[in-house]
Amino acid sequence: MIEDLQRALRPLSQPPAPPGWNHAAMTELIGEIERRPAAVLIGLRDGCLVLTVRTDHLSSHAGQVAFPGGSADPTDADALTTALRESEEEIGLERARVTPLGYLDCFETISGFCITPVVAHIASEARFRPAPAEVAEVFEVPLKFFLKPANLKRYTMDYRGHRREMVEFHYEGHRIWGATAAILLNLVQRMEQP
């Protein structure tokens, strides 16, 4: 499985560049507005992906399941720097416990971001300390769960007069949907390619 994961990634020496793989669909929904750069960390620890539940009082995406990550700062050198910094701020993940493996394709969101997903190995001994202002919970889901077709749910949603095909996963009471589910689907599809 780790070999399949590594093969599915863009190498660290070749990070993806915008636009996202879903650019046409997002342009139809939100127009040609400039997408703000962001990055998330898809961290794999002992065969499980690390996810967060955002606190209920946040102004955007409150209560949603997400990967650690966020907007790029002007001082961030690249998407990898953004993903590591945000993971440290949100869940207290020490950079020394993270080994970057590669990238997935960029993904654009309805809120106007272009996210670069950074895939990394997290050391078994890493400890998470969620920042209470941002993260209500950190939990882990076996990567194998996302690779089982029966666990992927598809549905259609109306947004500003447009019908959108959506995906989601349900794991032990957590609904994983939106950008997080779409990025996971991209990972699964890339891993399934010969």
| Subunit arrangement of the protein | single chain
| Succession of helices and strands | HHEEEEHEEEEHEEEH
Whole-number tally of structural domains: 1
Relevant CATH superfamily: Nucleoside Triphosphate Pyrophosphohydrolase
Describe this protein's structure.
- This protein is of the alpha+beta class.
- The chain has one domain: Nucleoside Triphosphate Pyrophosphohydrolase (Alpha-Beta Complex).
- The protein has helices at 2-8, 23-30, 79-91, 143-147, 178-192, and strands at 36-45, 48-54, 65-66, 69-71, 98-103, 107-108, 113-122, 135-142, 153-159, 162-171, 174-176.
- β1 (36-45) and β2 (48-54) form a beta hairpin.
- α1 packs across α5.
- The chain is globular, with a radius of gyration of 16 Å.
- The model has no long low-confidence stretch (mean pLDDT 93).
- Pfam families: NUDIX.
- GO terms for molecular function: coenzyme A diphosphatase activity; metal ion binding.
Question: What brief labels describe this structure?
Answer:
alpha+beta; single chain; 5 helices; three-stranded antiparallel beta sheet; eight-stranded mixed beta sheet; 11 strands; 194 residues; globular; Nucleoside Triphosphate Pyrophosphohydrolase
What is the topology?
Layout: H1 2-8, H2 23-30, E1 36-45, E2 48-54, E3 65-66, E4 69-71, H3 79-91, E5 98-103, E6 107-108, E7 113-122, E8 135-142, H4 143-147, E9 153-159, E10 162-171, E11 174-176, H5 178-192
Parallel strand pairs: 1-7
Antiparallel strand pairs: 1-2, 1-4, 2-3, 2-8, 5-7, 6-7, 9-10, 10-11
Helix pairs in contact: 1-5
